Records
---
Amino acid sequence: MASQAQTQPGSLRVDLPPDAPLALVSADWGASRVTARGGALLLELHSTLQLKNTGARRIRAVSLLVTAQDRTPGGRASVTLPSLDIETSDTFPVRIDLRLMRPLQTGPGAVVDVQLDGILFEDLAFYGPNRMNTRRSMLAWELEARRDRKALLAVLEHGGANALRNERVEALARNAAQPRLAVQAANTGRATAIEPEREVTLASLSLPATPVELLSGTVRIAGDEARAPHVVLRNVGSKPVRSVEVLWLVRDNQGREYAAGSLPADVNLAPGQTGAASKEGALRFSLPGGIPASLAAMTGFVSSVEFSDGALWLPSRQALRDPRLLGVLPPCGEEERLMELYRRKGLDAVIQQLHKLH
Amino acid sequence: MRSDARHPGQESLALLAGGDLAWRESLNARWHLQFCPQCKIQFEKFRADRKELDAIGTSDWPQAPAGRQDLSDPAWTALAAEMRANIRLGLTAGSLASSLSESEDGDIDIPSPMVFAPWRWAVVCGALVFVLTAGWWLRPSGGAPLPVASAPAWELPMTEQARQVAGPGAGLQLMVPVSNVSRTETDFGGSTRSRVIDGETGQVTLQQVYVE
């Protein structure tokens, strides 16, 4: 199979490797627009790609890398489709909705390149260059999805359709009642000169069976901004660890708690080893309506661990049912997908998915 | 009446009674009504409710601005899907409430939408009128493409050098179709990701913009 490249008049290109078990069937750029704005180009990408599984294995997730300016912050994006079930020779759509502003092009080449970053198969094998480490996120989604579908299937088998329906309605109600906090990356650290900045010691929450413990940490808080988190982690498991993700809970001055952001960190910890991770980035938190949140405290916990051999640890569903987390943490991706499927299509559609992806 | 895959759902009968069911489903449902007395009774009840509703009149409804009389197909599709989802949720919540009250007496185990008291139908119809009115009032202008958030989910941080070269706002930005359920997250590394779920197909799309 020859390299599959499709270059449009606006220089939007899809380029898949010749040996990829995925083929481009069509690329519809119809709703995309390119507009000149002074010395720059404004590109609004609204594309639907039709891809085909040309391999022998079922595909569970696909990730595409969209590159506009490789060396510029914000010049790269990924579009990932998890929770797929694509058989050999089946086609499926991939929707891309991105906006890009860039200098008027001076050299040759496409304005925007769409390339394959990875494919996750049913047997959890992976194919692709994995430039943006999408293997980890796709694998985490798939493992979480299997865990949650298994739990829902158990509800169905033990309590019947009524029990599953009650569970879905409860999940919808819980999701609707969940407090939300908008989180933005702040550009240059502190944006407020009125509130004094202070260093706050992180409270740590340890989930059962975690292979990495959050020993201590600090974060600098000023008004609605938190920045420069620093955490000390210890590998308490038996396998070397490559990376971890720490999730944050934020408490405001009213005592309300919210889930707010994460800190992904490459740590490389041998068993028993202690190491630190930190970021210079800053996050700004606001309440609905854009009202700045007044931060009082932060809690962190290790939400996933990637081992050196590529395996992943994720908390159990029961651990996430901890009363402190249950009303605060957003539902996992598959949980939310099945919730929306129930809302739109009803219980039969959910049961069909549970049986199909079992 | 217990829900059965061969019977049209409650929401389909409600939409059929109002003339809002898609033509293909409408044909199937009408064919089914020829042979199913249970569904026929249910359908007639919906139709009677509809007539009562029509009798109340719509003179107090908000009028559409001039020149915006027609819904575009994508907007109507999104609105219809949302209406259907809300009707389904209303019916489910009603049947759960019904189930709870009946089980306290120990008589009935299976919730039945047929035992709704008249005031419950009035509540359902009232909610339907509200959804229709709100949908009509808030619809986009005719002929517009599928609505897309006019503002990006997040403005990317820019180095001063890049800002000088490219002007403000350079870099990729996430755009989330407002008709779908979405969630946007940001991490301390500066990357922003959105999770968009198409409720009709169940397909999830994760988009992430990287700054490192």
Note: Residues 73-105 of chain B form the longest helix (33 residues).
---
Amino acid sequence: MSAGREDSPEQRELEELLRRVPREAVDPEARARARALFLAAGRAAEASQGEGPVRSGTVMDGASEQAFELWLARVLVPEGVQPEVRARARAAFLSGLAERGGARPPAPRRLRFFALALAAAGVLAVTFLLPEAPRWRVELLTPVAFEEEEFGLQDEGRLASSLERSGRIVTREAPTRLALSDALELELRAGTTVFVPVLPELDGGTPIVFELEAGECLLRTRAGWRGNPLFVRTPFGDVRATGTTFGVLVTPECMCVCVAEGTVEVDGGGRIERVEARTSLLVSRQGDPARTPFSSDPTSPERDHLEPLQAFEREP
Amino acid sequence: MSDPARAEFPVELRPALKRAEPAALARFFDVHYERVLAYVRRLVGVQGEAEDLTQEIFLHVLKGLAAYDPTRDPRPWLFALATNKLRDHWRARAAHGGARTPSLEADELIGALPGVGPAPGAELDQREQATHVRAAIDALPEGLRATLLLRLDEGLSFEEIARILERNEVAVRKRYSRALAALREALGALYDPAGGGA
């Protein structure tokens, strides 16, 4: 099936379609879910073409089995890996490349010396020239919690490594900055709780979904952004943006989406609101979403929300 | 589920993998590590043991590159190496007097799986649902579990799984159907065909 998937335009098209289905596309492990559903659909197709599963009194009928497979694909979420463990295994694997020479027949003494020197150089090269640097860069002003572990001001590098896996980050009394090289910047304002997904390839196609549970998150895509669909999921709906600067504030009563540059789409229960630049959209549990232009009145109550966003936008 | 969010190993890098070029090896590791670790972890059940075994599997990849056919997807080959490593691991544990020796030949359900469904009326988020489903998968005999993981998590064909598990394809199809049926029964009311997570 896997080989067929690589070669079949129809299956590629199906995968692309599944990626575009909003529900799957905005799940926290969106690409994982889409892939799993795609594979389940592929299994169903294979079963219907082939002889199908062998049935007896202890198995389900074909339709029930396929429905159950699709359900499993939706329910099962990927499990995380400790970044330290992964980094250790990776270094061992790449270093092992140099050690392969040891299994060959004995060589003359001088050659053995050169072989050993080359092996040592290889170990150094793969260890230091191919290190897996964390893709996130972190700036802390006060300690934060990530997956209930405390990270102090001296732990920015460790937090950046930890962010390679998914988890919930909780900021305290000051903002925290997260950046992906020249591609994406996030400012998590004080008192914010956000679930950061497993970071996918920045390939322009894989969706990235941040789940904002409480507080305020400012986002800005930069010149290096490859165009991966970018979402902020909130209890009030999903906010989708590509190539833009915007802020999302979540309180128990409402959500406010403020767009400084570009546009975003807010999908709340199937109704999609497009929000243009210099506009705010207020979404509450009661009533229709309310759209207002940015206010320039310094006494406006929304200035507390707009000023950090506009400062964030103006930064070089 | 393993980490299928990662990209596939690029076809154009397969010859470089065969030649053990460092960049291809690095990419190979990045694409497959989480997947292999998830597979091994579900079969050995102990995190630390799974991590050590996965590291050994990747070192074994380096020794086995001569046998890799660069015209094919390396994933079935890698999972075959992983499965053989698991067999060796269990054999070694048996030799040291392990209480019960797991085996990929084990595919007989002795009685029903323990029910893992939540209390009636409980509302679970997707992670909690996934935890229950994983617990049910862990309770399957190793043979059924390996078949299910290779099919469900990795999307491998029955033919590929048959080669990995050294069984015939019909037997693998049977195993897979039995695994699904046992899982369905163990999940009880947790299985909601209309739902499926947030």
Note: Confidence is low (pLDDT under 50) at residues 1-6 of chain B.
---
Amino acid sequence: MLEIDLALTRGDFALEAHLSAPTPGVTALFGRSGCGKSTLVNVIAGLLPGARGRIALDGEPWLDSERGIAVPAERRRVGYVFQDARLFPHYTVRGNLLYGAPGTPRAFDDVVALLGLAALLGRRPRALSGGERQRVALGRALLAGPRLLLLDEPLASLDISRRSEVLPYLEKLRDAFAIPMVFVSHQFDEVLRLGTHLAVMDGGRVVAQGDLASVSLAPALRSIVGHESVGAVVEGVVSGVDANALATVAIGAGSRLRINAPGLVPGQRLRLQLLARDLILATEEPRGISVRNHLQGTVRTITHDAGAELVEVDIGGASLLARVTTEAARELGLTAGQPVWVLVKAVSAGASLPA
Amino acid sequence: MWGFGETELAALGLSLAVAIRAVAINLLPAVFIAWLLTRRRFPGRLMLDAFVHLPLVLPPVVVGYLLLLLLGTRGPIGGWLDRQFDIQLTFSTMGAAVATAVMSFPLMVRAMRISLENVDTGLEEAARTLGASAWRRFATITLPLMLPGVLAGAVTAFAAGLGEFGAVITFVSNIPGETRTLPLALYTALQSPDGDATAARLAALSLSLGLAGLLASELLARGLRRWLGK
């Protein structure tokens, strides 16, 4: 468990963060630029003095201002991957990788293989591309044997194609090592792919936290991702795939969602976001319609949001969000507790799959 | 007229010896002061900064005079050195080196500071998260990356030190073979009625040494920057 309970004032910026995240796992810190994500990460790393409060990893305090504990950064054993890589220019890639590792650690070959660095070992950082630099920075942090990996927008300085070059490595890392990670991002699709736990920050505070499915419903998230991008996150397992790339995914307690996405295999775990604006609500099951998913559920809440209504529907263990006009909500007479059908196009659900 | 005689060779040798010693005396303190002024915030920082730069604005004769007061055999530090270690700086080559060191100290600090200001503190932070102690960070990251400035400072100070005049002649006088460096020999030659040719040769020598020093400094810095991967 990573426990954080902090207050820090720097100039006119105040950070006040209360956060507890399961370990191992990937805690995504999500928010707009300037919301205090990087500041929080720097305080966790011990690079910013002046914070008051408590930080503890698996019960061991790194900071406890009441008891006068403040472990210096160099003894916290955090692996920090900075936005700008920060490779040492006068060291080769090999030298960078080994900087934080005494001798040549046994994991060296594994990390080099995992991150595809073998061909780069003799080069200097200036001869690397942006994506290669971030991979070396990842390897360097890993080889120092960290107890916690901090990733401060490691993809933000990369263009789209470089991002998709590095992202799979981050996923491999998450799955191959049981190192707790804190991943800072202002891109929700990255959070969707990497995060297991989500903390939303706004104005120096953690305004929502929890697993992705529950935080995806949080009102605090809506204005940050933008109203067009609001949508419930659901997790499930592919139970079958037919010849036309129409997959059946088991979600919640017995609901089945059919999605159109090539390349899925039975047994695969999926996390997908169903955008609220793509969902249709009906008070009776429609007939003669191309929409593949007719999910039966119950209206849980209706909230007015940005000139329309956001309706949260419980479909048996999972929640979906649908955005409908105020007029439609009135015409259907939507109220909490009412049974409804949620219509989800298989093609739009497939499109929102994390790439 | 270009044949170098004993006078010129003695003055050249002495100048080289004085300049090298001055650089050696200054090197570590200059790195430390440059680091202190760039990377630390403490009360009295501005005062220290001004004090370090004093020799640039003071007349060299004043510096020589102050050294005489402090380090002369009857001065507080000079007297102590004399009693404890039987060391007399006045009228000695070592004294000339000390006077030259004081005069060129701000040149070294300046070059090192510029270089240190360009060392990304983010790299030191990265080293810190990788478990490096303050000493290791300095030795493996900060110092290597500021080396071009250290080198440039040392070479500039060396070149300038070959020609320090005012502070040297005031503090350690003008003794042939002991403190008569190139500029002092040049000055002496100008005082004598038949010294014109010697003066010209000494001037040409000073000029080429200064030029060579500055060129060497630039070339070395370039090579170092390439080696540092910049």
Note: Residues 309 and 330 of chain A are 10 Å apart (CA to CA).
